[in-house]
Input
Amino acid sequence: MKRVLIIGATSAIASACARIWAEESSQFFLVGRNAEKLEQCAADLTARGATAVNVHCMEAADFAAHAVMLESCTAMMRQIDIVLIAHGTLPDQKACEQDVGTALVELANNGTSVIALLTLLANRFETQRCGTLAVISSVAGDRGRPSNYLYGTAKAAVSTFCEGLRARMFKVGVHVITIKPGFVDTPMTQGLALPTALVAKPEQVAKLIVEGINKKKNTIYVPGFWRFIMIIIRSIPVVIFKKINI
Output
């Protein structure tokens, strides 16, 4: 039985991961901002075999609420085997360019809130000396592209933070995995003109994430072909890159 904390539990990818773990009779502490959706997720996981499911409403960008959430989680489960951080938003790049306040809100939603949560969680895991911290970043963090560089900035910060944290936590028996999805068919990407051949289903991505956690991978691109796509994008010379719009 796994004891799993999921932050951003109502997201499509997180829900798909949770359904896999529920079939293994896992115990859950689900965190999200929508109470009704959390209860729906809890009922679904219970029906699929979860041994216990607790829910907690929290805005991820409410930094003061993080410690309370973690205290509640540890009181319920005592030890946490897996944390999946899966919350985030897809910013309007143009809006972020025009308004500093909007840009800072989106940086908090996608970057600093994750770093704040990981800081608290790492100290907790350092004490228990076991477990996995799984963090959903994005391929967008691999290079700043004009179409979404605010989002990419936040994800780059998360990925770099995880890299340093992984080296720190390895020494105390805790694993950190950075997950970099490409295009995924979720409510967050609805309405975007995406190349169909590159869009993955949440269930496909979830399977790869769970496999990566089980195999203690350090960084995974999901699906895997995104690793090669990003190698190509990173290799484009700056003199050319700044002239194209991707």
